[in-house]
Amino acid sequence: MTPFDRIELTAHRAFRNPARAKHASLWYQEAGAWCGGLDTAHDLPQGTVAAFVAALSPLNGWDDQIRFTPPSLERCLARIRQGLTDPAAIAKGISGPGLGENRLRAARVLLGESPGTVLRGDKVTAFFANLTGDEHSRVTIDRHALAIAWPEAAGITAKRYREAEIAFQSVAPLFNVTPAGLQALTWVYWREVKNGRPWI
Predict the structure, then answer these.
(1) What tens digit of pLDDT does each residue of 152-172 get?
(2) Residue 128: CB partners within 8 Å, gap ≥ 6?
(3) Helix locations, 85-199, DSSP H
(4) What's this model's pTM, rounded to 2 decimal places?
(5) Domain boundaries in the chain?
């Protein structure tokens, strides 16, 4: 089977519960609204928290992002209000999972650097794009999406990433969802099934 076939099959299985599949396809809209709410709460330009979250996303699950982002923002912004401008000093306010270089990138975003300058990597930049409303031109291909498209793959390459992205973009119109929405719903379905939970 090709990645296209595997993604289409997973989506068909997810849509056996149409209401739940449709809700799952709106994941990025809900997550993006959560990030936007934190922007508003902290008087930050819209997209700042999405970039902060995207920077910290490698090896960092969404449940941990929900748990650790609000207090990390509070501590980092308090350091900035104290006059600190060194990203390493700001990054000390970040808790939870997250690689050192990614913490520095997240701190740089809070210091006002453009996400387009700070964020690196296909998965991270796609995640930021999806969280900020672009659900068509980019698709977040993480380890879960990779497991759906290539269950036998040990890792992702640039070529494999692009092939998976194109496959999600190609399959999405069949289910009347966005490419990012398709990735989200297959991710939610795959995670539930993997953990032995019923898709009802």
Answers:
(1) 766 788 888 999 999 999 999
(2) 47, 50, 51, 54, 115, 119
(3) 87-91, 100-110, 115-118, 122-131, 143-149, 158-171, 179-194
(4) 0.94
(5) 3-27+134-194, 32-122
